[in-house]
Amino acid sequence: MATAKKKLVQWEPTDIKKELLKKYPAKVARKRAKQILINEAQENTTPEITANVRTIPGIITMRGCTYAGCKGVIMGPTRDIVNLVHGPIGCSFYAWLTRRNQTDAGPDGENYMPYCFSTDMQDSDIIFGGEKKLAAAIQEIYDLFHPKAITIFATCPVGLIGDDIHTVARNMKEKLGDCNVFAFSCEGYKGVSQSAGHHIANNQVFSHMVGENNEEKAGEYKINLLGEYNIGGDGFEIDRVLKKCGITTISTFSGNSTYDQFASAHMADLSCVMCHRSINYVADMMETKFGIPWIKVNFIGAKSTAKSLRKIAEYFGDQKLIDRVEAVIAEEMPAVDAVRNEVLPRTTGKTAMLFVGGSRAHHYQDLFAEMGMKTVSAGYEFAHRDDYEGRQVIPYLKVDADSRNIEELEIEADPERYSPRKTEAELQALEAKGYKFKEYDGILPDMDKGSLVIDDLNQYEAEKLVELMKPDIFCAGIKEKFSIQKLGIPMKQLHSYDSGGPYAGFVGAVNFYKEIDRLVNSKVWSYMKAPWQESPELSATYVWE
Ligand code: CFM
């Protein structure tokens, strides 16, 4: 007979923290203690957490590498640029269509995403250098596809042997004439996580593509959607809603994006930042160079979607748009509410844990809250202190050897194209009404007092947390999936969405409510115990006993 799992009803967060650290040697425990925080964010103060520091070797982190952040995350979802990986085949193979970023080839049909491009470095290339091979690969791509751009990604061995990928790129760009070729020094070891890869990608995309096309774009209320990667079709749903509101998306960085979107991004009048962690650099540079203000938005959760649409409408301040947005929200909400009300009695009071790379551990709390579910513990794999505590800490962030390794671009206002989209007076009028530009408050103020916020969670701590707190659902990635499910707790992948999605926007919220209801209320989890665990009295005896 299956028994319902016992809940540890009375747990103190300090005890849980102590339990998590107990097994560690003193030095490791001291370091991890600073990355495990009991949330006490209240009013104007937030506690400090250590983040964006090196992982302890051997601890089995959930993180990925710098190359993954550059090639997979920022450049991966763009369709008409050929992404060429300079390195051993594995680096390209494992970054090949694994992130579930969807694409629509559009009327031109140009889409290189199904391909896997690699220089396939061999031992001899490591010994004698791989530059010639790289140049030949670029030429081969050009001859075969004639793409608008070819980008080159460095993998670890490239940095170690010192191939000069930037010179190869420059020479090939000159030689080919009508193809933009540039490279990313995003060797896997370059930073402490994929976050460094985001920064490297942001810098190069901004330097080599943004601002290339000065043609005026048709449409009203022009925005850039930054930090939306079309995982499981999220971007398609957001596009649908924005279009319905009459808002024109000039570019998306980088879900289902094209070369021209990057090249034209400076023609937008507002940048909307979804994932703060991965793309805030571009938002800032766009403002400094072209005068485009940025705001934080979130399209995860129906209420958050409505709030974000209203925020965009308020910025443009046009009554026609404000009315249209209200009409769209009124039209979309009944279908969302119907499903929400149906699942609420079954999901209310359940608990969730969210450990995802950057933004999602924060954004998805809104969706769970809409279902009456509480997030008892959450954390990021690689986000920085500002994603926990808010952007006000940025001036105080410690610049260590690892972050110094990543170039900070010096951006100045473009002498011809800088044009503030709003006057000082207009900006002040909006701010006086409580409108916030360039603002992200981080995860901590949105989480309950006493909840556990853990940076760079590892395998051991994940299992310990589940064992102690027995959440109703645990959300992370594929590496965690089966170890957690073996503990009898449903696990939802919030990187790839398993095979589901979209979960953004209004349609996405409905999908998510149904999926989570299905997972947390499935009886299968109560059948996870082996017979000897269920009925310990059935112990075996030897015949001679
Ligand atoms: Fe931003 Fe992302 Fe995330 Fe991220 Fe990622 Fe991702 Fe993520 Mo996986 S860009 S930080 S590097 S929201 S791939 S779409 S799910 S870890 S929380």
Describe it.
- The protein is of the alpha/beta class and 545 residues long.
- The protein is 43% helix and 12% strand.
- It has helices spanning 13-22, 26-33, 66-75, 89-93, 123-128, 131-145, 156-161, 165-176, 194-208, 234-245, 259-264, 276-290, 302-316, 319-347, 360-370, 385-389, 401-404, 424-432, 459-469, 478-485, 505-520, 531-534, and strands spanning 36-38, 81-86, 117-118, 149-154, 180-184, 222-228, 248-254, 270-273, 294-296, 351-356, 374-380, 452-454, 473-476, 491-493.
- Strands 1-12-11-10-13-14 form a 6-stranded mixed sheet, sandwiched between helices. A 4-stranded parallel sheet has the order 3-2-4-5, sandwiched between helices.
- Helix 3 (66-75) crosses helix 9 and helix 14 runs parallel beside helix 21.
- The chain is globular, with a radius of gyration of 24 Å.
- Bound molecules: FE-MO-S cluster (CFM).
- Residues 69, 73, 99, 194, 227, 229, 231, 275, 277-278, 356-360, 495 line the site of FE-MO-S cluster.
Short description:
The protein is an alpha/beta fold.
Number of separate helices:
22
Supply Rg: 24 Å
Largest sheet properties: 6 strands, mixed
* Total number of strands: 14
Q: Percent of residues in beta strands?
A: 5-15%
Q: Categorize the overall geometry.
A: globular
